[in-house]
Amino acid sequence: MARSMLQAVSTAVFGLSAISLPLANAAAVSSTATSARSQYTLPASVQYAENVIPNINDPQAVDAQSVCPGYKATNVQNSTFGLTATLSLAGTPCNLYGTDIDTLNLTVQYQTADRLSVNIVPTYVDSSNYTQYLVRDSLLAKPALDEGVSETSKFHDLSFSWSNDPTFAFTVQRRSTGDVLFTTEGSKLIFENQFLEFTSPLPDDYNIYGLGEHIHEFRLGNNFTATIFPADIANPIDYNIYGSHPFYLETRYFEVDPKTGNTSITTGNATDPSKKYESYSHGVYLRNTHAHEVLLRPNRITWRTLGGSIDLYFYAGPTQPAVTKALLKSNDALPAMQQYYTLGYQQCRWGYKGWSDVEDVASNFSKFEIPLETLWVDIDYLGQLRDFQTDPNTWSIEEGEKFLSSLHSKGQHFVPIIDSAIYIPNPDNASDAYAPFDRGNEVGAFLKNPDGSLYIGAVWPGFTVFPDWLSEGAQTWWVDEITAFHEKVSFDGIWIDMSEISSFCAGSCGSGNLHLQPVHPPFALPGEPGAVVYDYPEGFNITNATEAASASSGAASQSSAASVSATTPASTPIYRPTVTPGVRDVNHPAYVINNGQGDIANKAISPNATHIDGTQEYEMHNVWGYQILNATHNALLNIFPEKRPFIIGRSTFFGSGRWAGHWGGDNYSKWGSMYMSISQALSFSLFGIPMFGVDTCGFLGNSDEELCNRWMQLSAFFPFYRNHNTLSTIPQEPYRWGSVIESTKTAMKIRYPLLPYMYTLLHLAHSTGSTVLRALSWEFPNDPLLANVDTQLLLGPSILVIPVLEPQVSTVQGVFPGIAEGEKWYDWYTQTPVSATAGKNETIDAPLGHIPVYVRGGSVLPQQEYALTTRDARNTPYSLITALSAKGTAKGELYVDDGESVKPNATLFVEYAAENNTLTAVPQGAYVEPQPLANITVLGVPSAPLAGVTFNGVKLPSSSVAYNGTSHVLSVTGLKNYTAAGAWAHKWTLKW
Fold first, then answer.
1. Fewest CB atoms within 10 Å of the CB: 213, 416, 498, 500?
2. Minimal CA–CA distance to 362: which of 381, 375, 352?
3. 3-state DSSP call for residue 895?
4. Do 173 and 158 contact (CB within 8 A), yes or no?
5. In what helix (H) or strand (E) does residue 364 lie, and over which residues does it extend?
6. Do 281 and 323 form a contact (C-beta atoms < 8 A)?
7. pLDDT band at residue 6, thresholds of 50, 70 and 90?
8. Which has the closest alpha carbon to 614: 447, 502, 472, 437?
9. CA end-to-end span of the chain, whole Å?
10. Measured between alpha carbons, how far is residue 723 from residues 4, 367, 407 in Å?
């Protein structure tokens, strides 16, 4: 659900310490101070601190490059693996957006043959002047020198050089091509206590991807500011949202001279399909947890952070898979292996009113024979909206125990939401007890104000405190609370929300006000007066004209009735503070980042919230969500010591994938949100979080039949497949519309048979760092035409999906990559080869209910049968689709284990290879898979096998072999008798 702050309200300037909330502001106040919940509503005026213009939009903002002195390098010492140097200010300090740091230490390491680190930190004489926060290795993994690395840099593909002309600058170059990947030549290094800046030129029309989290096209373009700062906001285009991932992949294309083989760099938009190209990709990762922004401009990239250090890592690649694998391995960020059941379909909504509601939902999925694996519940189930307790009236523990026992007996699962803030009770009201807070407070589990008092914000239950993940007490307390909750509600995984971390007020607004305890957030909830949901997707006015007109009229009436002063800020100030050297202002840093919420305290806890060791949230905001996922992972291991934790979290940092998956947050029931989901998924592939999906059919606004029809089919190819929508909108479970029932089943009858393939992809991602969902440009790296394709995607190397992403059409445009190099594609449904032209968008028939899917020639795809749960699907026989390449070859692989164990007792890995009219399966491993092999289908067989077909040398009866001379498909059935010990119990060979 996420339920970001759903409505803008009036702004007012408040300090970020305690805010006094007089009773006069309350809509209604209980006359009894000791009542269980005083009838006080948090006023809208406390929601905002300031809403300021970022420096990049301030025409009078001073350019640091024009006034700051830069540095000079001295004491340069070459070492076995790189060099060290001292950097000293090259002139008078500018103290522009902070205090210039006089002296810095530079350390350069050739860490592996394809990774180079450049580390610049302040020089400290002793700990007394250690004021700059540097990320601890214990908090965030730090790439280290490879023990097997060569003792000289000459064997590395990356080279580092530096100069002092006119000030210190460094350059990273690729030796194999001579290409400069990054250089600060021609610019100055800025290093202040609250502002760092470094910049590098880039080629024309460069291809950069990553730098999340945001809603933007996959290829970022050269007029974009990527802000790395988590924000609780519902999917705004181009602004920062929930996660922080300071990494980018850059791909450069080189034209190959057909006579000499020499290469020359091209623009990112090279479009001549008759020419030959090759590409080189590299990655850049900044290990810095401070708020920062990355300015992508024509021919230049600029990094600006609000503190910390320059801790850069360059990955040579030279391909996207090589970059991603090296990045994830070196940062201890290989993604978690998921349980098998998590690949099943999942259903949720904000608005289920009790166990009877979710039981009805489960029954309807069964009634319409639509697969359902997991039911999710939003904050509705929480007693008084407080974590770790249920509403006793409609979500009683006893009724839940009965329902969940029945659900589990059917092979289905249950995941509840857990919010990130903890209710703090009214100390003047003895009946307002909340034991989780008491237990946490006893062990120092919560963040404090600078004066040592509890930092108290406001979230769904009212005034709340926030766990301090640097406190050992918080870690233990969180594990204990989740464990105790599981004894009451037998959940199977956890959904972490609001973890940016979000607060409904600016500052410690609950300090001194706990006796008030607001009963409502400072904005209207969907469905309440002034916030009735009238929104529908584009095209609804055509398919449902009468309803659309009524909704439009209602929306207009609601809009005209709304008070302008209550929804629109009177003005947005330009914030230009004066910097006092030596003084650090964390609440209002002099440099204003391009935060979509304005002031960095808006809809978040304040930067001066203080951790147990004195560190402030100013340094830790970007990794708060990262840390709660770690703590939750430990909690689930405590409950299920032998099972892999299943967690979906909202706020992530680079490396979060080793604990959790992610969903795309509060998207809209709009066609544009469905389109953007592809770019989101591909970006999170780069970030090492393959377990990704979005709220299918949209979260905010009303969906409709056509949108949900198309979206349920697209999401069927995402690893995390969930439908979810907001309070008061129309229901959008797939059984609500007849055509959506059929389209959902059509897509699921592809997804569920492919679960063995998808599970294998997840295993490879977990063990090697490969990706599950892939951009076309990654699999076909030498075609510049694919650099900007984000309207279609690949599931692994073998399944191409070309979805319809607009309303009121029955065709879709799609490109078939690799055609010029002889790549072969087969239509999933007809199993026949596709006739396509290299470099051309083909028009493909796609009537409502049909999603074009294609199999790549050269692939062997293991399958099992369609079923309503993954448990039942796993208990069906196997089959294989072997799609031959133009050369008559194919290969594939399968990973099998028990589907849940952290450390399986046994595993099985099968390799498939087809060549010379022979398909071979070679198993390795001790895991016993009892299911037999039933069928093998071979696509692209040019002629009938005149000598018959043999399996392990035994000629199969003619009744088991069929050949279609029109489609060139060879079908082999009746193999169960030959594989009764299990499909992969032994090596076998099929010849035709």
1. 416
2. 375
3. strand
4. yes
5. helix 355-367
6. yes
7. very low
8. 447
9. 53
10. 17, 18, 19
Burial class (CB in 10 A: 0-12, 13-18, 19+), 697: buried
550's CB contacts (< 8 A; 6+ apart) are none
Model pLDDT, residue 269:
59
pLDDT single digits (tens) 695-752: 999 999 999 999 999 999 999 999 999 999 999 999 999 999 999 999 999 999 999 9
Active site residue 497: yes
Q: Between the CA of residue 927 and those of 523, 942, 986, what are the distances in Å?
A: 55, 37, 12
For the question of residue 100 being annotated catalytic, the response is no
Q: Name the nearest CA neighbour of 925 among 985, 990, 989, 864.
A: 985
Instruction: Please answer whether residues 184 and 170 qualify as being in contact, where contact means their C-beta atoms are separated by less than 8 angstroms.
Output: yes
| Six token digits for residue 663 | 């969903």
**Could you give the CA distance from residue 246 to residue 879 in angstroms, rounded to a whole number?**
42
Longest alpha-carbon distance in the chain? 94
Q: Show the tokens assigned to 573.
A: 């100030």
Both tokens of residue 747? 């897509």
Q: What backbone torsions phi and psi does residue 282 show, to the nearest 5 degrees?
A: -140, 165
Cβ–Cβ < 8 Å for 864, 876: yes
Q: What angle do CA 867, 869, 872 make, to 5 degrees?
A: 65
Exposed / middle / buried, residue 366 (Cβ in 10 Å: 0-12, 13-18, 19+): middle
Tokens matching residue 779: 């699999």
Nearest Cα neighbor of 380 from 264, 527, 278, 261 is 527
CA dist 63 and 161 (Å) reads 26
**Of the residues 157, 500, 705, 779, which is catalytic?**
500
**CB of 373 within 8 A of CB of 448?**
no
pLDDT tier, 565 (very low <50, low <70, confident <90, very high otherwise) = very low
Which amino acid is residue 659, in one-letter code?
Answer: W
User: Which tens digit of pLDDT belongs to each residue from 352-377?
Assistant: 999 999 999 999 999 999 999 999 99
DSSP category for residue 483: H
Indicate the pTM of the whole model: 0.95
Given the residues 50, 100, 492, 666, the one annotated as active site: 666
Which residue out of 157, 293, 497, 706 is catalytically annotated?
497
387 is catalytic: no
Return the pLDDT at 148. Answer: 73
Q: Which of 755, 844, 843, 856 is nearest to 800 (CA)?
A: 856
Domain coordinates of the chain in residue numbers? 777-991
Close Cβ partners of 230 (under 8 Å, ≥ 6 residues apart): 213, 240, 241, 242, 243, 244, 500, 501, 604, 621, 622, 624, 625, 651
Give the type of residue at 782: N
Looking at the domain 777-991, which fold is it? Answer: Immunoglobulin-like (2.60.40)
